[in-house]
């Protein structure tokens, strides 16, 4: 496949994925669709880190915008500067940044999914409090932290925000899938950009 044609496919795909990543990360700040818990500071630390905005979002969208612009300039008639090796080099560099951002988003989302949400729950020793019930559980082999992703019955441990466990699981899982796809596409574009640096673009050849 020509370097320009590949860019016209990878660029728009990264634009869509980057937008999804930003949307998922923003929604994590508003569990249950309300802003009250964000205002009160009752948001998990990995949701506050918004990895889907700066990692899977901005870094990827910057690369995607350049890749898409270069790809479509190559597809139009009369655009003589579309296939320069400089554009291919910039594309490869931005794709490397996108790869790093997506990788950071993947790691932080995985940790956030594993630790579980910050919620108001009834601790047996200290009474109701805000904390991480699935992370704070004693690792006895049967603790909540060991199986909450697989045992939906334990999700009722969180009393507030309502439905926060499902909210956390769905959105962090979405971030994991999106960032994994971004890493694959960014890696492909790095190779594509390197080929463009070495061989130039093949549009019209």
UniProtKB/TrEMBL annotation:
Q: Where are the transmembrane segments?
A: 12-32, 52-72, 93-113, 165-185
Sorted UniProt keywords: Membrane, Transmembrane, Transmembrane helix
> What is the top-level taxon of the source organism?
Eukaryota
Q: How the protein sits in the membrane?
A: Multi-pass membrane protein
Tell me which family the UniProt entry assigns to this protein: Belongs to the L6 tetraspanin family.
Does this entry carry the keyword Transmembrane helix?
Answer: yes
The reply to whether Membrane figures as a keyword in the UniProt entry is yes
| Protein name as it appears in the record | Transmembrane 4 L six family member 19
Which InterPro entries did the record assign?
A: L6_membrane
**Localization (cell):** Membrane
Quote the cellular component terms of the Gene Ontology held in the record.
membrane
**Where is it chiefly localized?**
membrane
- UniProt lists the gene as TM4SF19
